[in-house]
Amino acid sequence: MAAKVDVEKCTGCGNCKEVCPVEAITVEDKAKIDPDTCVDCGTCVDECPVQAISLD
Length: 56
What we know:
The chain is an alpha+beta fold. It has one domain (about 5-55): Alpha-Beta Plaits (2-Layer Sandwich), CATH 3.30.70.20. The protein has helices at about 15-20, 45, and strands at about 5, 25, 30-35, 55. The chain has a two-stranded antiparallel sheet with strand order 1-4. It has a two-stranded antiparallel sheet with strand order 2-3. Strand 2 and strand 3 form a beta hairpin. The model has no long low-confidence stretch (mean pLDDT about 95).
């Protein structure tokens, strides 16, 4: 199961993209996580300043 982004909370800052070890995150206006690439490491969850990412 991949990490999920709450688009209502996401500010598009890109912090998550910078720390993703497998480059599963893209950011345009909001972050988007590729579920096929994500390894559920949780690094992005810890890095998000607005708590917009969760592991479900």
